[in-house]
């Protein structure tokens, strides 16, 4: 447990007498994964979240973290040896040069409104402030770099929303989850002249990753997606690049839809849902109908796999008109989320 022991001592000294047996500690390794899974599934119903993580999912996720060391960047709350909550932080640099500290915290519903969530949030903020200062002191980022703290919440997460708003976070951006409730009457749409869709092979994936980052670089809050995320996807048991629809012109990737099917989620909720995600088109091929054609091909592919609906997430203020595009393809809003931010105190 490499977390600075003084951190735990300071938090444990913060008026914990009202909760007998409560302690805070660092990450112990893979033995914590089942405890984290229990907390995740213990929160989802109250928070209105559709979660289907398995122990295998958590193990895979934590094998491919980027800018996050769980031994330094996590804090656990225990009561009489049982984990009742935990938090983790990580960071990235936006294309604009802004440093963003990301975080989450989960506390079992029966242990909320007792101060545990606030202590986890304070740990997150203090840890991110320390990381940002270390990066500046080490000249890894300029001393005048703007630094902000970020939280993403779905509208149904009432307790977490109340907590972060009480700590000064403000909404800055809104998202929708959209679902196409059936896969019937998918239009047949032509690809632009000279563009073709090819079967994705493993040797293509790094080029697909590079093209995706290029396509998204003028979007709000753009952060280059780390290669570790693609490694995580490739190690996921649901990884199936035959569902991807990647458009090429000669040896250049023009655009893509990287669909997937979450088998555990479908089994848990009785769905037959596929996800049409990572929808993007690079600049030279925009306004040619490519995104719409790729979505149509992706919907057909999901139907061929036995799916009956498709879902995606969208930034409601996307300047490329994505929301209108998805509505025109039959998707409807089913949930909303909010990105909250505040400046990192120096």
Description of the structure:
The protein has 346 residues and is an alpha+beta fold. The chain has 2 domains: 5-168, 3-Layer(aba) Sandwich (Aminopeptidase); 176-338, Gcn5-related N-acetyltransferase (GNAT) (Aminopeptidase, 3-Layer(aba) Sandwich), CATH 3.40.630. The chain is 34% helix and 25% strand. It is built from 11 helices and 13 strands. The protein has helices at 5-12, 33-47, 55-62, 70-73, 116-137, 158-166, 205-216, 227-235, 263-269, 290-304, 322-328; strands at 22-25, 74-79, 82-93, 99-107, 147-154, 170-180, 196-198, 245-249, 252-257, 273-275, 280-281, 309-315, 332-343. The strands form 2 sheets. Strands 1-2-3-4-5-13-6-12-10 form a 9-stranded mixed beta sheet. The protein has a 4-stranded antiparallel beta sheet with strand order 7-8-9-11. The protein is globular. The two termini are 28 Å apart.
Task: Give a brief rundown of this model.
With 346 residues, the protein is an alpha+beta fold.
Comma- or semicolon-separated keywords:
346 residues; alpha+beta; Aminopeptidase; 2 domains; globular
Residue runs with pLDDT of under 50 for 5 or more positions: none
Separation of termini?
A: 28 Å
Shape: globular
Helix tally equals: 11
**Superfamily at the CATH H level of the largest domain?**
Gcn5-related N-acetyltransferase (GNAT)
Strand content: 25-35%
How are the SSEs placed, and which strands pair?
Elements: H1 5-12, E1 22-25, H2 33-47, H3 55-62, H4 70-73, E2 74-79, E3 82-93, E4 99-107, H5 116-137, E5 147-154, H6 158-166, E6 170-180, E7 196-198, H7 205-216, H8 227-235, E8 245-249, E9 252-257, H9 263-269, E10 273-275, E11 280-281, H10 290-304, E12 309-315, H11 322-328, E13 332-343
Parallel strand pairs: 4-5, 10-12
Antiparallel strand pairs: 1-2, 2-3, 3-4, 5-13, 6-12, 6-13, 7-8, 8-9, 9-11
């Amino acid at each position: 447990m490499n977390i600075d022991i003084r951190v735990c001592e300071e938090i444990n000294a913060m008026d914990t007498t009202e909760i007998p047996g409560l302690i805070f500690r660092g990450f112990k390794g893979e033995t914590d994964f089942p405890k984290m899974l229990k907390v995740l599934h213990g929160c989802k119903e109250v928070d209105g979240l559709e979660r289907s993580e398995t122990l295998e999912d958590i193990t895979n996720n934590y094998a491919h973290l980027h800018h996050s060391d769980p031994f330094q960047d996590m804090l656990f709350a225990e009561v009489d040896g049982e984990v009742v909550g935990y938090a983790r932080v990580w960071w990235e640099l936006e294309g604009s040069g802004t440093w963003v500290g990301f975080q989450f915290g989960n506390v079992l519903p029966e242990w909320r409104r007792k101060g545990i969530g606030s202590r986890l949030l304070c740990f997150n903020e203090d840890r991110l402030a320390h990381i940002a200062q270390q990066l500046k002191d080490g000249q890894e980022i300029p001393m005048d770099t703007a630094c902000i703290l970020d939280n993403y919440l779905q509208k149904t997460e009432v307790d977490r929303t109340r907590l972060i708003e009480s700590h000064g976070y403000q909404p800055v951006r809104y998202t929708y989850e959209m679902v196409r409730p059936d896969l019937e009457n998918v239009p047949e749409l032509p690809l632009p002249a000279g563009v073709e869709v090819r079967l994705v092979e493993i040797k293509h994936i790094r080029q697909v990753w590079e093209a995706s980052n290029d396509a998204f670089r003028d979007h709000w809050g753009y952060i280059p997606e780390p290669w570790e995320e693609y490694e995580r996807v490739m190690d996921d048991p649901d990884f199936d690049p035959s569902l991807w629809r990647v458009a090429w012109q000669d040896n250049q990737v023009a655009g893509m839809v990287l669909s997937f099917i979450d088998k555990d989620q479908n089994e848990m909720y009785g769905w037959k849902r596929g996800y049409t995600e990572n929808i993007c088109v690079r600049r030279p091929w925009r306004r040619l109908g490519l995104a719409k054609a790729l979505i149509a091909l992706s919907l057909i592919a999901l139907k061929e796999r036995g799916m009956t609906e498709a879902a995606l997430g969208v930034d409601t203020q996307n300047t490329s008109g994505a929301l209108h595009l998805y509505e025109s393809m039959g998707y409807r809003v089913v949930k909303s989320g909010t990105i909250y931010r505040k400046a990192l105190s120096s």
